[in-house]
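> forwarded from #structure-qc
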């Protein structure tokens, strides 16, 4: 999908936020878990705030409490962190543009600065087109 089609008034597009999370634990067995939660509705700024709060809650479980939300996946007393040798963890905040059943993901958190900057530009254009004030970042 081309950038100009993202906000084409003639195309029926749905815009929403997604939080995507992935964890892999290395040990005797390699186990992985992923989860995705979509935040849909009419008020994109409100949805972004809700998605950011959800992302922060999920990260807090890993970074501060050192545990993951699926107890069956992670053996007892296993310390999980973003830097641990025995685990790999990532989480992303994504602005999804769904047009004609084709999703384009614009990553706003969890990637390199260039990717995030590009995605924030797309988000700003969508907000302008829909009449929302851009959120401060």
């Amino acid at each position: 999908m081309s950038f100009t089609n993202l906000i084409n008034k003639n195309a029926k597009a749905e815009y929403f936020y997604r939080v995507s999370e992935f964890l892999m634990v290395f040990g005797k067995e390699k186990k992985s878990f992923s989860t995705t939660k979509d935040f849909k509705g009419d008020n994109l700024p409100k949805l972004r705030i809700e998605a950011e709060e959800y992302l922060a809650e999920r990260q807090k479980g890993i970074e501060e409490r050192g545990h993951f939300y699926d107890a069956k996946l992670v053996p007892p007393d296993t310390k999980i962190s973003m830097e641990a040798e025995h685990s790999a963890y990532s989480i992303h905040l994504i602005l999804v543009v769904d047009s004609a059943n084709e999703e384009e993901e614009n990553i706003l958190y969890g990637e390199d600065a260039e990717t995030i900057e590009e995605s924030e530009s797309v988000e700003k254009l969508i907000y302008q087109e829909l009449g929302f004030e851009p959120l401060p970042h």
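QC bot note: The helical segments are 44-63, 113-130. The chain has two helices and four strands.
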